[in-house]
Amino acid sequence: MTRSISILGATGSVGASTLDLIRRNREAWRVVALTANCSAAELAKLAREFGAEIAVVGDESCLGDLREGLSGSGIETAGGAQALCEAASRPVDLTVAAIVGCAGLAPVMAAIEQGGTIALANKEALVSAGDVMTRAVAQHGATLLPVDSEHNAIFQCLQGNAIEDVARITLTASGGPFRTWTQEQLDAATPEQAVAHPNWDMGAKISVDSATMMNKGLEYIEAHHLFPVGLERLRIVVHPQSVIHSMVEYRDGSTLAQLGPSDMRVPIASCLAWPQRMDTPLEPLDLTAIGELSFFAPDEQRFPATRLAREAVEAGGAAPAVLNAANEIAVAAFLAGHIPFTRIALSVEAILQQSNLPPAPATLDDVLDVDQAARARARELLEVA
Ligand code: NAD
Ligand code: MG
Predict the structure, then answer these.
(1) Do residues 111 and 89 touch, judged by C-beta distance below 8 A?
(2) Predicted confidence (pLDDT) per residue in 321-344, tens digit
């Protein structure tokens, strides 16, 4: 049986891992929409290879190149933020939401409104929209499958169990490339060093988030929305080998964990095949070669981001959207060489403390307003365009 699929953010790291699995199983899927921000040549190539119905660039100035790349193919093309939402609202069996940042929020919401199944990688969308998104999922009868490896692990460990029986959820964190660095070394860390993750090969933004530990902070908020066990039952443990992807402890003292290679094709395959299983081309885990698994408490002195995320989700309302927006601007400023590494968390904290928080967003437009306003404040603080 053929299933239909759209991939939002098809040219990124998660997009590429998803398409790799589809390429190995071509007859099982009909590709509807593939999107990118720009990367028109790459997107055109993928749209031709997978026989997509439509290819969309978020940045309208790249539409000319996309049209050129797809001329004579019969594949529809479109550009701009509204076009992304229109493509995302074409009914499909599965939407893979793999745009990076709050830029992916409106397209994810458009997919949710169709009531289908959404494999969510785009954690910033859920962090920013929180209850607005989870309410929309319930209202439209949509299904959210977590792609993020930790949340996918938790989702798997919860199967067949009642959420009321959960005593604690443990999110594991690799600790990133700077786990053992001193404060002085962190102050001098470069973008090249920050994007060189020891275990995972990912896009630049999430790689920097892993280095600051903001990725784990965002994931803490993501877990709070996906698995409503209460913040007091959610904790973070540093586990440098990235073999255990997260754990669920039950009230009888049993802890279930999901283990696997550090390759996003494992959690993506779990979403593609859900509720069944499929083959992946990965080497099985070699536990004797790995030898030892170790665990540490996070150091919030050197890596304050997890504290900031916890404080934001405890404050609730607009705070997580402000945290996310400020972080997106600070990470971009760091990657562009405008600010030092340690200023990322400092500036997020400054933006959160700067002014009275706006009221809790009730609609998608409210979230987008909070996001835009926080971005403007962060740009002003960091003196970036
Ligand atoms: P990436 O930078 O490699 O790819 C991002 C994709 O989004 C690209 O296709 C890009 O063209 C598109 N995009 C970027 N900005 C856009 C915009 N303004 N409008 C429309 N499209 C835009 O990122 P990634 O590493 O694949 O991560 C994607 C998402 O998945 C992120 O939210 C990330 O946190 C999450 N995630 C990634 C991994 C991983 O291993 N890479 C793991 C877990 C979660
Ligand atoms: Mg993760």
Answers:
(1) yes
(2) 999 999 999 999 999 999 999 999
